[in-house]
Amino acid sequence: MIGTLVANFRVFLIILVRVTALIQVAPLFSSQAFPQTAKLGFALFVSVAIFPWVAEQGYLLPEAGVDYFLVVLGEAMIGIILGFFLNIILLRKFRSPSWVSSSTSPVCSPSW
């Protein structure tokens, strides 16, 4: 496992960047209740758990440094976007019942 990780470190770095970006923006982990070290530790744990599957699939990477940097940047953006959509989904799930009850209640209705 360690030998595979060292041989495919660039693939592992891409996985780590995406998972870290997702955890930083994800609904539960984005609060201040979780310290940064716990977030990074969890991202490292998830990345190590996902890595063997991705390494087995074979992930083609560009050889040039600038192209690799753009791939890493793209993976970070994908993680941020996924976390943002998770925020939207959970916000809609948890906020919509209170919005419906406040907008349909005759006491809070602006027409009364």
How would you concisely characterize the structure shown here?
Helix content is 76%, strand content 0%.
**Beta strand count:** 0
Shape: elongated
Question: What about the largest sheet?
Answer: none
Name the helicity range. over 70%
- Poorly predicted residue ranges: none
* CA distance, first residue to last residue: 68 Å
Helix-strand topology string: HHHH
Describe this entry's structure for a reader.
The chain has 112 residues and is mainly α. It has one domain. 76% of the residues lie in helices and 0% in strands. The protein has helices at residues 2-7, 9-25, 36-57, 65-104. α2 crosses α3 (36-57). The longest helix has 40 residues, at 65-104. The protein is elongated. The mean pLDDT is 82.
Q: Which terms summarize this structure?
A:
single chain; 112 residues; mainly alpha; 76% helix; 0% strand
Break the fold down into its secondary structure elements and pairings.
Elements: H1 2-7, H2 9-25, H3 36-57, H4 65-104
Helix pairs in contact: 2-3, 2-4
